[in-house]
Every structure is written in C-alpha cells, then in structure tokens.
DNA sequence: CGGTATCCCCCGGGATACTG
DNA sequence: CAGTATCCCGGGGGATACCG
C-alpha cells in the first residue's frame, strides 16, 4: 500500500479483511468471546504461535479498539486481554464465515483436488 | 504453511479467509454478482490491477470452484468470468463484512488515530 | 510470565515489457 | 484482447535467543 490507492478508502470491506484476514485475529476473537484471557493462555490455544507474532497481532487489534490490554502489578506478571464492545461486534461477521466454511470446506477441497488433477493430466495443451 | 500445521484442518474459517482474504477476491465476487464479465472489464473496475495479479486471483478462484472461465473462439479473443453457484453463495458471507465495515469504519479509524497519537506523546514510558 | 530482539524465508502484489 | 514473462520490494510470519 505504497501509493495510497483510493481503493483503500472507497472499499470498506478491505478495512475488515485487512484487520481479520491475517492468520490469527479470528481465532483470537473467538477465544476471547467468553471472557478475558492471559497471554500464555492464548498462546496455548493458538497452537503455540510465536510470542512475537502473537504480540504483534494483539497490538494491532488493540490499536483498532477490538480489545483491551490490562497489566496487573503482580509477581509473576499477569496481563489480560479482553474484547471490547467493538471486538464483540465482530462475532456476527464471523459466524457466516464459519458457517460457510463448515458447509463448503469439503466441496472446495474436492473441487480443488479435481482441478489440480485435471491440469496434471493435460500438459498436452501446451 | 510449510510444516502442515493441523490448525489448517481444524479451523475451517482459515479456508475462507485464505480464499477471500486476499486483495481482490471480494471485489471480484461483488463485481460478478450481476452477471459475467470479461477480463478487461474486471481490470477497469478493479482500478487497473495488474494483469498478472488479476489472472492469478481468477485462476485461484476458478480452482476452488468459485467461478468459471469461458473462452470464446473469436477474434479478437473474448474470455468471460462468471460466478458459479458456490461463488454466489459467498454473498451472504460478505454482506455482514460490508455492513460491519460501513458501520464501524469511522470508529476504527479514529480509535486507531487516537491510539497512535497517544503513543507518540509518551515515549516517556521508556 | 510476558514479552523483545534478530535473523530469515516466502510470497502477495505491483511495474514493466512482450506475445498469440 | 487476454494474457505471459521477469524483476523487484515489503512485510507477514516462523525460529531462536535473550530480558525485566
């Protein structure tokens, strides 16, 4: 996004996809849906994503107001992440995504496989 | 995705996001919603995206059965892209995305701005 | 515990030029 | 018209190591 395409502005969907289209944001929202969680808890659930990446993702979401980060002055340190109202409002957006995926994942995968197989068969077209 | 994480399988949402999370797929679906379009038509609507990129995106979508590619044996050549049933079924998925974006884009942008401004103020925390 | 700091690789995506 | 062929850059994201 170097030359500030007006597409970025004219197309709101891009804002959402840039925000939740990355690898972990959706899973984070889902995981925080029923209450705040600590950094390590999230890491475990997210299959031990690298701390750097998790931090980066969380910071980005915090920046956009999707969640809050609360540091507790204890030893050992404790940090909790919690969805904001805005963060919670994303659930209705994700449900259709989930539903579509659940319903069509097999179809897509088999279509993809068939398509690849067909291409592999006919290198003759060249 | 090198070491085939089981997350890819266990989390259907990823399939969708990997598919429509890229820069152009959503816009393509929206643009093909009311009927087939030719390659150049798509290019124009999509703010003159590079042919290479457009081709790549379209091929990926074709591979997953979201659209069909029809070549007409004419001169000059004509190629039309049309959503499949599966492709059309994505619309209900995108509408909430659109709606959320329309409703919250200003909020997110201002929250983001405020957040950045605050960080710029306090390099003292260091 | 909850992060930073580095290094590194891959690839999405744009620019430019050429072709059947 | 509808693509290919190259080159290139930025950054997402993982691995590893270290820190307050």
Note down, in words, how this protein is organized.
Chains A, B: This is Transcriptional regulator. Chains A, B: InterPro entries: HTH_HxlR (IPR002577), WH-like_DNA-bd_sf (IPR036388), WH_DNA-bd_sf (IPR036390). Two copies of one chain form a homodimer. The first copy, chain A, is 60% helix and 11% strand. Chain A has seven helices and three strands; from the N terminus they run H-H-H-E-H-H-E-E-H-H. Chain A has a three-stranded antiparallel sheet with strand order 1-3-2. Chain A has 126 residues and is mainly α. Chain A binds a DNA duplex (20 and 20 nucleotides) through helix 4 and helix 5.
Would you identify the CATH architecture of chain A?
A: Orthogonal Bundle
Structural class, from helix and strand content of chain A?
Answer: mainly alpha
Give Rg of chain A in angstroms: 19 Å
Taking the alpha carbons of the first and last residues of chain A, their distance comes to 36 Å
Largest sheet of chain A: 3 strands, antiparallel
Secondary-structure element order of chain A, N to C: HHHEHHEEHH
**Outline of chain A, from the CA principal axes?**
elongated
- Can you identify the CATH class of chain A? Mainly Alpha
The percentage of residues in β strands of chain A lies in: 5-15%
| Largest binding interface between chains | A-B, 44 and 44 residues
| Count of β-strands of chain A | 3
CATH topology of chain A: Arc Repressor Mutant, subunit A
Oligomer: homodimer
């Amino acid at each position: 996004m170097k030359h500030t395409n007006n597409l970025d502005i004219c197309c709101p969907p891009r804002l959402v996809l840039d925000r939740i289209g990355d690898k972990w944001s959706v899973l984070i929202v889902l995981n925080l849906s029923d209450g705040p969680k600590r950094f390590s808890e999230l890491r475990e659930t997210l299959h031990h994503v690298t701390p750097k990446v998790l931090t980066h993702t969380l910071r980005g979401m915090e920046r956009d107001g999707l969640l809050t980060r609360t540091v507790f002055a204890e030893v050992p340190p404790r940090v909790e992440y919690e969805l904001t109202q805005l963060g919670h409002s994303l659930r209705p957006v994700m449900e259709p995504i989930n539903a579509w995926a659940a319903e069509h994942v097999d179809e897509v995968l088999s279509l993809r496989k068939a398509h690849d197989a067909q291409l592999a068969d006919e290198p003759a077209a060249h």
